[in-house]
Specification:
about 325 residues; alpha/beta; Spore Coat Polysaccharide Biosynthesis Protein SpsA, Chain A; 13 helices; 9 strands; about 45% helix
Length: about 325
């Protein structure tokens, strides 16, 4: 059984094109689960009208309170009944062979529980920009680690059950990919299977990797240069890492039972996250005291290798010179 989870909010301009692309699939979905986050346009009405002639089941839910896109997706995912769950935004277009290609990859790769495929950047009118997402990412990073796009992500049911609920304030796609990497069950399809529409209302537009215009390696490197942490950003990061750390601890037994991964790999990931979390808490402790009391703490932190997860000597100098308080 194949499910599509879609989160919507004021998507009336483009949503019909996306819905119609589901109908054109060479292998049809069995159900579409839509959670609307309180649209003030006619998004819900468009979906309801489309459902009258759709070849697959469509269930529509409207939130009483606005949840935000991540928790809205979390609710949509929790209602999916399929063995394979495709995530969908409201403004893109799937190529006709998307579902078929993804299912073939899953069938040939039983150890993979999360797949992400490449996509073509397009303008608001679906005119190709001439770059794919993996092409951009490969200029600056390893796609296996960095490529995270919800609308190109598909998961197996058992894996999804392990990941829900999504940590509050965490992006739903980042969370799923974190979990997949920890379990060593992420795979990539190096073929574009969707048109990725870029327009002024895109949630992800602030990231230069998702720019409306083509971008070269130099600009990507400049825009993705290291930005050292403030105390506030460190505390925010600790919140997310603690949430993921707790998930790793609580999921270790399930992961082994379901045969997702070699338990030694999982244990190593847990150790790495534990060490990272400890270093981040130590650095918060350093920058929380006046500069005059920091030197001994900074020296000890340096000896332990704590600055290696930041920007090395640059972060060290910042902790010596900045007031923070």
């Amino acid at each position: 059984m194949i499910s599509i989870a879609m989160a919507t909010f004021n998507g009336s301009f483009h949503i019909l094109e996306q819905l119609e692309s589901f109908n054109r699939q060479s292998i049809q979905p069995d159900e579409l689960i839509v959670f609307d986050d309180g649209s003030t346009d006619n998004t819900v009405e468009i979906i309801k009208e489309f459902s009258n002639s759709s070849t697959f089941l469509i269930r529509i839910y409207v939130n009483d309170l606005t949840l935000g896109y991540s928790q809205n997706f979390s609710k949509a995912l929790s209602k999916c009944q399929g063995d394979f769950i495709f995530l969908s935004d409201q403004d893109d277009v799937w190529l006709d062979n998307k579902i078929e290609t993804v299912l073939n990859k899953f069938e040939s790769s039983e150890h993979i529980h999360l797949l992400i495929h490449d996509l073509d950047f397009c303008d608001t009118n679906l005119k190709l920009l001439g770059q794919t997402k993996i092409e951009r990412i490969s200029k600056v990073a390893d796609p296996m680690l960095r490529y995270v796009t919800g609308m190109a992500t598909v998961v197996r049911k058992d894996f999804l059950k392990m990941c829900l609920p999504i940590l509050k304030r965490e992006s739903h796609d980042i969370w799923l990919h974190k979990c997949a990497l920890a379990l060593n069950v992420k795979g990539i399809i190096y073929e574009s299977l969707s048109l990725y529409r870029r327009h002024d209302s895109n949630v992800t537009l602030a990231d230069p990797l998702n720019s409306i215009t083509n971008i070269d390696a130099k600009n990507l490197i400049v825009n993705n240069k290291f930005r050292d942490n403030t105390k506030e950003s460190l505390m925010e990061s600790i919140y997310f890492i603690e949430g993921f750390h707790n998930w790793l601890i609580n999921s270790s037994g399930k992961a082994e039972f379901l045969g997702f991964t070699d338990i030694n790999y999982f244990s190593k990931e847990l150790d790495n996250i534990s060490a990272r979390l400890n270093f981040m808490k130590m650095r918060v402790d350093i920058i929380s005291v006046p500069r005059v009391y920091r030197i001994a703490k900074i020296f000890n932190f340096y000896k332990l290798g704590g600055y290696s997860i930041f920007s090395g000597y640059k972060s060290l100098l910042k902790d010596i010179l900045n007031k923070y308080e």
